């Protein structure tokens, strides 16, 4: 008589695990697909360069998947923009340090270095919006957004364009809700002024 | 109800338009970036699944070896039966006549003049 071996239900458990993982990856892929273009434009407006923007978005995707991929899908949007915002801040910080070294090397005036407006991309330079849309309004908006300080621009883009609420924007920008409102108020005022001046 | 000024709708529309007309090279790079970001996650999960499967196989192997080392009850019963059979064979042997003794018996009978 053959001895009976104990049976362990391994195969169904593994199958289920792989299936759940595959669904999660597909959902994550869909989420990234839904935000990647807007993320690219945000990074492009912040850096003024398509190549830099692509690198920044890729870094943000890596960081988001690694640190927040297992979080509930409802939290993904603010968390993704939080990572992107962090990458943009790092990029600006590196650029400022490089600018300081360059200024010391070229004996430039230090006052210009500390002026955020002076550091903004040249408004007359054709921006990404101009390349894409080619319209006067698009060019003006692009220039006005490019002139905004980083925090104000992010507050405007996340609240107005991405449609995040104040709390989610505060999560993305790692600041208080009050700060978000202040940044947005200033951004709206500056943009309105810039657009009216153009009109 | 829109909580932002009316002109922001136009800004939003312009920004949306700018994302819809990205060139193919940029879209391809975005696609690659997305897949590259998701790849380590799939690999890590695959490694975990493989490790789980390997552990399960080892567990099964260990259980099987443990089970094989234990003497099954059926084998024990057969061994007991075997011992009993030896005893019966020994008993049966004791009852059998010795041919040499038989020959000596019949030789004695012959000497005595028959039965």
Word description of this protein:
The complex is a heterodimer of chains A (199) and B (115). Chain A is mainly α. Helices cover 78% and strands 0% of the residues of chain A. Chain B has 115 residues and is mainly α. Chain B contains four helices and no strands. Chain B is rod-shaped. The mean pLDDT of chain B is 76. The chains are: A mainly alpha (199), B mainly alpha (115). The A-B interface holds A 1, 3, 5-6, 8, 10, 14, 17-18, 21, 25, 28-29, 32-33, 36-38, 40-41, 50, 54, 57-58, 61-62, 64-66, 69, 128-129, 132-133, 135, 137-138, 141, 157, 159-161, 188, 191-192, 195 and B 4-5, 7-8, 10-12, 14-22, 26, 29-30, 33-34, 36-38, 40-42, 45, 49, 52-53, 56, 59-60, 63-64, 67, 72, 74.
Give a quick set of tags describing it.
heterodimer; A: 199 residues; mainly alpha; B: 115 residues
SSE topology:
The complex is a heterodimer of chains A (199) and B (115).
Chain A (H helix, E strand, L loop, with lengths): L9 H38 L2 H19 L7 H31 L3 H5 L1 H4 L8 H5 L3 H12 L2 H12 L4 H8 L3 H22 L1
Chain B lengths: L6 H14 L3 H46 L3 H23 L3 H13 L4
Brief write-up:
With 199 residues, chain A is mainly α. Helix content of chain A is 78%, strand content 0%.
For the CA atoms, what is the radius of gyration of chain A? 22 Å
Helix percentage of chain B: over 70%
How many helices of chain A? The count is 10
Proportion of residues in β-strands of chain A: under 5%
């Amino acid at each position: 008589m053959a001895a009976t071996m104990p049976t362990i239900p391994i195969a169904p458990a593994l199958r289920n695990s792989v299936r759940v993982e595959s669904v999660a990856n597909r959902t994550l892929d869909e989420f990234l697909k839904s935000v990647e273009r807007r993320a690219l434009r945000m990074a492009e407006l912040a850096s003024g360069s398509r190549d830099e923007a692509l690198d920044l978005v890729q870094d943000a995707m890596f960081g988001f998947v690694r640190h927040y991929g297992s979080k509930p899908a409802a939290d993904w949007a603010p968390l993704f923009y939080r990572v992107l915002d962090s990458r943009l801040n790092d990029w600006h910080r590196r650029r400022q340090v490089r600018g300081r070294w360059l200024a010391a090397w070229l004996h430039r005036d230090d006052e210009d270095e500390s002026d955020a407006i002076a550091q903004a991309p040249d408004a007359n330079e054709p921006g990404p919006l101009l390349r894409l849309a080619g319209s006067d309004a698009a060019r003006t908006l692009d220039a006005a957004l490019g002139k905004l300080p980083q925090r104000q621009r992010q507050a405007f883009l996340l609240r107005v364009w991405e449609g995040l609420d104040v709390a989610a924007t505060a999560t993305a920008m790692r600041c208080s809700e009050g700060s978000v409102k202040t940044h947005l108020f200033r951004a709206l005022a500056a943009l309105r002024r810039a657009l009216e001046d153009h009109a | 109800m829109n909580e932002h000024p009316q002109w922001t709708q136009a800004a939003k529309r312009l920004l949306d338009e700018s994302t819809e007309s990205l060139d193919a090279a940029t879209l391809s790079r975005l696609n690659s970036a997305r897949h590259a970001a998701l790849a380590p996650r799939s690999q890590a999960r695959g490694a975990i699944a493989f490790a789980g499967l390997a552990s399960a196989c080892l567990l099964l192997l260990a259980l099987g070896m443990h089970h094989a080392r234990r003497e099954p009850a059926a084998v024990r019963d057969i061994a007991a039966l075997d011992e009993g059979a030896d005893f019966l064979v020994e008993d049966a042997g004791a009852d059998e006549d010795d041919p040499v003794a038989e020959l000596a018996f019949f030789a004695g009978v012959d000497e005595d003049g028959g039965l």
